[in-house]
Queue: 3 jobs
Job 1
Amino acid sequence: MKLGVNLDHIGTIREVRKAKEPDPVQAALLAELGGADGITVHLRGDKRHIKERDVELLRKVVKTRLNLEMAATEQAAELALRFMPDQATLVPERREEVTTEGGLDVILQGEFIKPQISNLLSAGIEVSIFVDPDPDQVRACAKVGVRAIEINTGKYADGENPERELENIEKSAKLACKLGLRVLAGHGLNYRNVTPIVRVEEIEELNIGHSIISRAVYVGLERAVREMKELVGKYR
Ligand code: PXP
């Protein structure tokens, strides 16, 4: 299983001081040294952590795959077309939220996001949608032209009823696979809760940020990534 490392919080630390460090670009190189299969950043509308400058430079230095998380809007799609990441992941975005709070409502917004999806795909950018583990949402994703989804593991990670949430994730992953979609997953995953998700056969890649960056404070980024990569690659 592949590991995408989300570097948003390198930007968060930099921006609390409006300083020049730490730099997501240097972090990306270390994450790749530690075995990351891809680098993810979320260029939010308010640019609160990752800036356009970061994405521009990351595009030049990332040797694995660059995944740009973005709102499903025309303005965000224009930026993606400028930076040309390998993949764009469409997420819902609310200004007041601390982090992405849930999956995109594709049932409601399907028609609105279709033009953005087709522009990105025609430019050669793969498109994935961050979606809750809900069969109706997964079916809606299959209808808007994307070939990949990222299942939101946030509720599973909250720990209120992880067994039930794991079951929902498994069912949605199976359904997505049947519908011909590649399946990724992420949000809230850490060194303690990741293994049951790794065992879900249909999931081919995880996107993990906060727990890796937090551990990096103690053990260094390269090692923090390597330790997560060991867990994520344990069964395949
Ligand atoms: N996937 C998506 C779509 C996200 O928005 C985030 C958070 O930026 C992540 C994965 C990573 O979540 P975490 O930082 O909790 O590992």
Note: The mean pLDDT is 96.
Job 2
Amino acid sequence: MDLFVSGRLCLFGEHSDWAGYYTRINSRIEPGAAIVTGIDLGIYAHVEKCDKFRFRTALNDGSITDWLEFPLSIKELRAEARRGGFNSYIAGVAAYMMEYYDVGGVAIDCYKVTLPIKKGLSSSAAICVLVARAFNLLYNLQISVRGEMEAAYRGEILTPSRCGRLDQACAYGEKPVLMKFDGDNLEVEQISVGKDLFWVLCDIHGKKDTLKILASLNACYPFAQDEISENVQRALGKENSRIIKETVLAMKQGNAERIGQLMTEAQDTFDRLVSPACPSELLSPKLHKIMDDPAVKNFSLGRKGVGSQGDGMLQMICKDRESQEKLVAYLNCKLGLEAYPFCIRARHSVRKAVIPLAGFGTRLFPASKVVNKAFFPIVDYDGVAKPVLLAIIEELIQSGIEEIAIIIQPDQQEEFDRLFSNITDAHYYQKLSEEKREYNAAIQQIGMKITYIYQEEQLGLGHAVYQAHDFAGGEAVLLLLGDHLYHSNSGSSCTDQVICSFEQCGQLTVSLDEIDINRVSSYGCLTGQFVDSEQRIMRVEAIVEKPSPEFAEQNLAVKDEKGRKHYYSVFGQYVLTPAVFSALRKKVLAYREGSGEIELTDAMEEVRSAEGMYGYVVDGTRYDVGIPEGYKKAVTNYGSRVDKSTGASYGKE
Ligand code: UTP
């Protein structure tokens, strides 16, 4: 199995994790709070079960260590952990996992490390999370991300390293989280960012003594003895809480300018109130010189130190990608430093998606007799031959979808596992290029976002969707048909367009595609009134499953200003509200043997008449790969950008 664990960057609230722990001893201390995000630098590893505990790692200079081997003995692993150094982290977590879970050995080959070591990005926590995750996945322990964080923390504190509680946030991947520290309690909350935010991280080639910084600041706790200690407690307590609260709000709004101001404010507060407790390390002349550089100021909206602070790393936020690029070029080429750009992507209010795939795919017989239509191959825009389903899921993830439920028949599970779990044939794996191995690791990471739900009997699309009612958990969810591919003709993906439209309208929303009248009998068709000047957002007035052309002409035509008639079908993407699941529930309970299929369209019509519903005419092309002609068209056009120039849509023909 291939794994990737990112490094983590504390954006705001450094030191407040251990400071918040002191609330246990002094109740007047303010709980800690920090905003932490994963970055795309990290550790790539191949992991497998083994009868011992084996480990080797690539180093930042490209060399690779020899294999280290430990027997499966908690005592010996603990002793190794106490010895310190890089191996101690691995031994510490392995000791913890063996003590608390019924596991055997693992072999961990960290074949690529892109994360700089000892730069305040918690490379030690990343390796600890990686070891915990390797045990979790290889031994199918079903530990949540939060549980992996805990195991990583428990393992790391067996070593001499004095890690904090915020370091393990790397377990959440590249998503920002708000962490709150109150004594032994830790709360983690994901932050939905309103707009893409462009950051730069820079190694300033300075020096600092983290242990000295930590010792000096810890000396200010638990009871402040002088003004310096009082100031440190105020900065890491009340001042920090206020800044964090405002920053979370600014991040939700996607307000980069305000975040920049808050970064500068956080740095000023640190300089004024915390640095005097350890001036030799925290005056950070090099950091300040670069922060005060006129060009750096010009290209960025705000600047502050990283991690324990001091002359280590610098973080900055920029207005847009262009200024981010200019800043990185300036830092690298003019100042001779090492700067990395990273982006925190906007997240939508729709976090979950459902893909029903439990149908038989009879229209693709006999191909579908041997291969589920979800696995039919397609060459995507990246030039990679991949199953249709993977192309669909990758677009979902780009749109910020975090959890995906796939509805399948129970005996289809094996096919899905083959795609999303490890490669068992070692020979096949060895023949893959490094790039392909990385992609293989990425596919397994995608697999971690998937929940499989079984539809035991094929009673129709509505019945399949209803199986996901627990998964939806009262949230609005995106529904995608597993046999449709989408190509956007605009800057944002078809999925993004539908979700944005839902966010505007706040009601059940379906994507729409204009179709010829002679095709209406194959699709769910809708009619209504456009409510915007661009004629994209439609208040839906009726929805009919597979109408005859005569019925459609009489009842479903939407006339434009010149009196021409247009017909609209569902484009295959829906944002379902909880009301749809309630309506489906009634249909499922009322179902009697032989009474036909349980249709999603019927449930949507019920919700439309009770609460209203919107359609959005997507600027894009749909390929129905569940039918031979649609699949043929997708193989020819999808991924080649031919469709972009012609704007041809399968549904329009
Ligand atoms: P379709 O009716 O288009 O697909 O359903 P099908 O039943 O697989 O294909 P044919 O008609 O036999 O060729 C649309 C989507 O809903 C799923 C299908 O797998 C498809 O992705 N579906 C349909 C279910 O999951 N369960 C069902 O009972 C019916």
Note: Residues 40 and 108 are 20 Å apart (CA to CA).
Job 3
Amino acid sequence: MSDSFVLVINSGSSSLKFAVIDSQSGEAVLSGLGECFGLADARMSWKFNGQKSEIAVEGEENHHKLAIGKLVGLTEELGLASNIVAIGHRIVHGGEKFTKTVRIDEAVTAEIEKLADLAPLHNPAGAIGIRAAIEAFPALPQFAVFDTAFHQTMPEKAFTGAIASELYSEYGIRRYGFHGTSHYFVSREAAKMLNKPVEESSFISVHLGNGASVCAISNGNSVDTSMGFTPLSGLMMGTRCGDLDPGIIEFLMKKGWSQEKVFETLNKKSGFLGVSGITSDARGVLEAMEDGHEGAKLAFEVFTYRVAKYIGSYLIPLDHLDAVIFTGGIGENSLPIRREIMRNLKLLGFVEDEKGNEAARFGAAGIIGNSELLGAVALVVPTNEEFVIAQQSVELL
Ligand code: ADP
């Protein structure tokens, strides 16, 4: 254990995730969640030394502010405060302005607020978290780590939509991509596992969690990614539809669906939940499939087929392939989903390593398959976004 800890804050519209991370080992010394903000039962729970605790966040005032205020007392009570050297905030949208992690000052906070136009649910919450943390911890330097920043290396042909160019010049409509911290982390870890300098590596990183995205990474840089202007595009997800014919939106609206109903359906009632008809959770889908549920089987097939199609197409921006990297809750744990994706990649020569696929679960990294044709392997690499936030904050200090 080192003596420099970073308090990592991930502020959502009605929630706040926090963790105190050892900036050298990446271990979460303390981790917790504030939820139901804005409601009468707002509460905060945390885990420290294997023990769980929970308190109510009482008061009419801004619950983010109240919760971060309580964090000050908590870190002191647990004896962590004197080792916390910085605060790192996870911020969803950095637009074209933020291409890497930055130290926070008033101008940065104002810019994050301005980008609310692009991320109306997330950026305002991020800025509220920043302002509350500055008030609660005035002596600590604070840093912003952006989900979009890693993808700012994408070439113009990858981020430009095939639409009228004024939509970009006037409104900033283009592909931004998300999950950047995760794709960054697993590509660095994969390079270490393969004993390759990351500057000479070539990966397709596949983050499969509730949200899911694929990223082509050439010489350490993102060159294309499946999420776009919003996190709705690309792969099928827990409740999001992924790629969809935009004509469907017009069709439904002509049928009398409101804009809210259409987007609620595409964001919250699609994906695993929509196709299976039972759950957004991959584990639940797999269990139901074993019991013979037809909708669950179809959801499994659509999901794995679409991931494989993306992997195939993401060979295009690369000049060779060292590895396909699986990560995220599904990618790190689900043997049958990884198996089916590799089966779908048979023409690219991928063959499953059954023992490896069984072993690489529940936090274990490893090789789960390979392709002689491409000279590549399939890897599982557990992601650790908090660690990246802690590391980059300390590096900038
Ligand atoms: P988030 O995007 O919210 O961070 P996670 O990365 O935690 O989500 O991934 C959540 C998904 O991982 C859920 O669909 C869950 O069912 C799936 N998952 C977790 N463990 C397993 C497992 N053992 N087998 C299959 N899926 C799993």
Note: The CA atoms of residues 130 and 310 lie 36 Å apart.
